[in-house]
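Example with several molecule types.
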Amino acid sequence: MTRERELMRVPFGPIHPALKEPVKLTLLVDGEEVVDVSIELGYVHRGIEALAETRNIVQVLHLVERVCGICSHAHPLCFIQAIESIGGIEPPERALYIRSLVAELERMQSHLMWLGVMSYQAGLLTLFMYALRVREGILDVLEEFTGNRVIKEVNTIGGVRRDLDDRIIARMRSAVKELRRALKLLIEAVHDKTLESRLEGVGVLEHGEAVELCAVGPVARASGVDFDVRRDDPYAAYSQLRGKFSVIVRRGGDALSRTEVRILEVLESTELVEAILDELPQGEVRLGKPLLRLSREIPAGEDVSRVEAPRGELLYYVRTDGREFLNRLRIRTPTLANFPALMAMLRGSELADVPIILSSIDPCIACAERVTLVDAREGARRTVRLSELRRGGG
Amino acid sequence: MGIVSGSRARSPWLFLLNASSCNGCVMEFLAALSPRYDVERLGCVLVGTPRQADVLVIVGPVMRKMLPMIVRTYEQVPEPKAVVAVGSCAVSGGPFVGSYAFEGPLDDVVPVDVYVAGCPPKPEAIIRGIYEAVARKFGRGPGGGDGD
Amino acid sequence: MELHLATAASAPIVLLVSLVYEGVDRKLRARMQGRVGPPLLQPFYDLVKLFSKDRIIPFTAAYPLFNYAPLLSASCALAGGALVFVVLVTGLQLAGDLLLVFYLLSSSSLLAMVGGASSGNPYAAISLSRGLSVLLSYKLPMLLSVLTAAIKAGGTLSLASVIALQAEAGGGIATLSLGGALALLAFMLCMPAEGEVPPFDVTTAKTEVVHGFLIEYGGPHLALVKIAKGVSRFSTALLAASLFLYTPARPPLAAMLCLLEAMCIAVLTITVPGTVLGRVKPSQVVRFCLVAPTSIAILSLAISLLEAGGLA
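Resulting structure tokens for the full complex:
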């Protein structure tokens, strides 16, 4: 074995235990230092946007639910908002509250899952186990309310598909209370010395970089970018809930800040869920008309909609053709927006920190995999260029 | 029941292969490792390299770019091995049938021993699937008759 | 000749006990994480299964090294562990056996790493370069604390005389002198690195280097490496127990007590940190080992030299 100081090319993925999803990073490594990194996407490319153009609105609703299993409420919510705005449909107030409620429950379970995966990366299996056990409480109420733990299928045109009753409301309250108690322990565990030493100062993203590279969500907020779609462009019931939650912002820009932001966001979400359950208005949860007729009544038009998914700002562009089909669907997911920031974080880091940095942006590769969207003739094999990953505008 | 086949049945090591899944099944698989379901009771360990695996758990629809990786990973698992297809996408393609990148259900690509349907299947179902695969391929279910 | 036979005869015993520890370790870990955990006999099932699996040799591997290193590694570990056990049971005087045990156990780790790195996998190569620096950094304080015990026993590097001294004094070195206690502390601080558990499992970390040097090993090779690892970590604990915490009793009973103590030491220094701590970076491991345990070991050495065998 020659011990020359030469750069070693380390493939990271597409199949790698630190990645629960296939993506390929090629790291150029000098000893333990990462000199450069290139990223290759497309392994989870399923051609969803092209598929959407061949299906009607109701079918697409089920399809976008399966863009990503972790944020399986944010995607259809974002889609349905665009559709409703094109059709000029106003869902009942109670439905909007339920949408927000499920969105917050989803945020909690997503962040807890992330905490688990993150501690798994850091070799702290016990915290993984604990975070996942706490998360089960949220999944239980989700299952009781929506009928499924993961793919929730709550949204429909002009409202939601299920209504809350007193029993479920009581269950949700106790689950949230339980979660808040468990969170205290989780927060303590994150500030444990060994874990903290692994997170502090790792993968730093300065405020300027975060703005320049258009980072979104908890990643941006951990770098001091005070932006949250829920507050700054409220949707669902968030305009009525404005005073009930605060946007967590940290200035550190490192993995520890991102961890803090997410954990405290779970805490904020527990507040929000309680506020929603307190203020829940009475009434219907959807329009009286059958779904298919509603979908046929959507005129030709286009709209952009955005929501704050657990990972950050999620953007949908929808163009309908007036005959219950879509002309075009475009999805810009938060993970995709965070990739340029990820590259900046990885350069100059230590090899040992790569899994931690990678998971600190909470990547959801399945979400991000419509970058290569081109038509079928061009094929899916095209590698994504960085310039394509950059979000246009601010 | 010999010592060897008994041991094989009691120590099925898992390798999770994410074909092109939406993460729903991945999350439920991870939940199966968590304290409430605790698949390690059956001697299962999640390993990081296919070389050490006995049971290949594959989630997600088979898409063009992952196709060669799936075949290669399958070949890297030493015999005897079992394959469990978890989730509707792996079983049939689910909602992604018709996509230009779709390469067919998993059993067109590698031999599948057990199909676990669901979108996503619950952790209990995934554990059951692993159990069935082990029972079918290695003689009997993990921890069989042990009562643990 | 007798020694050879005795060592060969006790190798299976050492293997058995270290597998039992492995089972206890996994069960305890699961319990601490709020899980039921695998049955106690799980490590036995794992081994039998692994031996019955296919042997795959990657075409990039340097065949002889890749193929035989695990066997050599396991034999070294078994020989080292069996030697400690034989001396413990029979009280056989062997000049320099402490160094021999130390050498065998270190070679075992080294061989496993080199064998894995010969697979040609880049992760295994990174793991080897990490492993070498970690190995050096924790073996140094370990050796220093062993020397402390040797100095107590009048400067002979023989395990039997250290045991004899403790039997005479009526208690373990660590319980009777400050130097001994410090040496044991230094030794125990190095144990997580020896056991390759968090916070020091940088060589085989699954998420960072994909099991490190183990990445290309599967089936019988992996079984042998696992034996090597399990036996050498338990033997190190056994060495600590017999060097510092020997409880005078009739020979078979004393050996049993030592095994029990070794089990406790292993649980304390391998199972518990492995469960409650996260992994640190390779550079942090080296820095930690070269600062905390090394300075404690040097201190214990100095105190022991001052006490000058004041135990007897």
